[in-house]
TrEMBL record:
It comes from the Bacteria. PANTHER family: MURAMOYLTETRAPEPTIDE CARBOXYPEPTIDASE (PTHR30237), MUREIN TETRAPEPTIDE CARBOXYPEPTIDASE (PTHR30237:SF2). The lineage of its organism: Bacteria, Pseudomonadati, Thermodesulfobacteriota, Desulfobacteria, Desulfobacterales. Residues 20-136 form the LD-carboxypeptidase N-terminal domain. This is Peptidase U61 LD-carboxypeptidase A. The keyword Cell membrane does not apply.
Amino acid sequence: MDLAPMSKIKPRALAFGDTIGIAAPAGAFDADRLEKGLSVLQAMGFLVRLPDGTHASQRYLAGTDEHRAAMFNNLFADPEIKAVACARGGFGALRMAPLLDMDAITRHPKIFLGFSDISVLLSILGRKAGLITFHGPVVTSLADADDATIASLADALTTTEPLRIDLAEGMSLVPGTAQGPVAGGNLASLCQMIGTPWQPAFDGCILFLEETSEPAYRVDRMLTQMRLAGCLAGVAGVALGRFDRCGHMDVIFEIVREHLPEGVPVLAGFPVGHNGTNRTLPLGVWASLDAENRFLEYHEPALAR
């Protein structure tokens, strides 16, 4: 297959004073943690807009599917909003996927940020709208984020230079190098998309994965499903983030290697994911992964000037 870089839509870099709109496309959230997270964004120099209705709830969701999707679509259509950040992950992004206004998203490209269940939307917007997206903190997680998380986020949202991540304490599970667009996110969130119209494809990609609170047998089960569905057959390389509360990491690493084609480079130890430093990773941008020298280097900026 042709592995040349695909044409992607680069959103514009943020300037201090730009407005970040807050979406709640998935789970209901704690209002106090949201306010603390908003104050972090404001301290970084950005304005924030919390649309009326953001605090809606239905069971464990932030309102009905129609409500969440309408607010999401409106934020993308609003020219005053320069970036869209998500209040929380949890669950619910895939439920509203059929209601996304992909035309509006394509006409008004802007930074879209989130992780965990938001991995669903990162994948859909990347594949269906061609938008470069950002795997990074949700607003509620900024409430107690460390300095490294905040600095990485600020850099990712404003820089027009290629990013590079060096892992002094990274682990080369399978040596080698790989090139391709970075893709992926939360393992469980990606796995739930298999068999839907938005099933992810990682052919020629550097696949990033992270997870939380899933014991080893569940990680094994999800990777088994992804492998048997063909999602892992063509991966160029794998970058592993934090597998928080998933059991002994040697077991997780062994499981990952079992499900990948032989010789695919694997670099573990990226400070990305739940319950710890959560560096922001652009998705959809061509990069090089060097498992032996322990770095991920993007070939071009993720943002336009």
